[in-house]
Amino acid sequence: MQAAPSSKRRATVLDCHLCFTGRKATSLLVSTKATAATDSYALVKQEFPPGFWNDEKINSLTSSYDPESVAAKEKQMQTLISEIKSMFKSMGDGETNPSAYDTAMGCKGACSGWLRPPTISSDAPVDFTQPVERRSLPLSADLFERLWAVDTVERLGIDRHFKEEIKETLDYVYMYWNERGIGWARDNAVGDIDDTAMGLRILRLHGYNVSSDALKTFRDGNGEFFCFMGQTQRGVTDMLNVHRCSQVALPGEKIMEEAKLCTQRYLTNALENVGAFDKWALKKDLQGEVEYVLKYPWHRSMPRLEARSYIEQYGANDVWLGKSMYLMPSVSNAKYLELAKLDFNNVQAIQQKEIQDLHR
């Protein structure tokens, strides 16, 4: 009777290593079958094309690294970082808007008589349209504002500068998380799939315990997803957020798999027929965002490449329905983009110099 193979011998592959011969990489796979008397080894040889980072490629890198230039950019970046941190701290509390006009108007409607005169200068004509709109909106979209700010800094690759602010922001959102979905503001009784999907994805990626069952609230009898209860149309932006959310599914989450298939079909059709037009926002390159997400799902995307792509797609002057109504500068802002460009170029210059130094 043959002796039973040991646990170490049960493996069909003992070792795998690469041997580099000239410019070709060779993989040697060593397999074994245990017998009572002898061990037989089969050697499988596979050849791969040359690596991308050869001598010629490394030597051709033109690094813009200069100690004085890097120091100047670092100083400029620190100024922007401080300004963006202030933006995080100044977000609305969900009760009253930071605007003094809104606070006064929300407390007492008779304050309108006091609010108007101070806005009038000596002889200059005054447009009261925007102030009047602001006075009628005392509540701020606190959850919407926070989620979009976190999503923006993460997609632009500058989130490492705001770890403390992101933690405080997500703690706030999680405090008001509802398993039936969330809306723009913490006390908003009407949830929407846009904020719910973004909240679910970001909170889950940061380790918060949230259930995908929240998406079930936003399905009709045919299994299709919608943004608000009773809505018959959908927007590209909200379906894009649901699709991104579906990419962080846990094993066995059927609702996430269904959301992925449904939104993938919708977004593909939108690209082919309407060019990714959205009724909620006028964005710089929404079509490019959709194309990237469909081509490079979260588990296949690389953070720095995603940041490079989103720097091109990001519009600091994008027009959002919520941004226009509540005047929220942290939803989209030129400071994000300026910092992202400085940071990306700085890191790239440093890394190019480092790889050249290591190659010597």
UniProtKB/TrEMBL annotation:
Residues 141-294 form the Terpene synthase N-terminal domain. One of its GO terms (molecular function) is terpene synthase activity. InterPro entries: Terpene_synth_N, Terpene_synth_N_sf, Terpene_synthase-like, Terpenoid_cyclase/PrenylTrfase. Pfam families: Terpene_synth. Keywords: Lyase, Magnesium, Metal-binding. Its cofactor is Mg(2+). GO terms for cellular component: chloroplast. One of its GO terms (biological process) is green leaf volatile biosynthetic process. SUPFAM superfamilies: Terpenoid cyclases/Protein prenyltransferases (SSF48239). It comes from the Eukaryota. PANTHER family: ENT-COPALYL DIPHOSPHATE SYNTHASE, CHLOROPLASTIC. This is Terpene synthase N-terminal domain-containing protein. It comes from Taxus chinensis (Chinese yew). The lineage of its organism: Eukaryota, Viridiplantae, Streptophyta, Embryophyta, Tracheophyta.
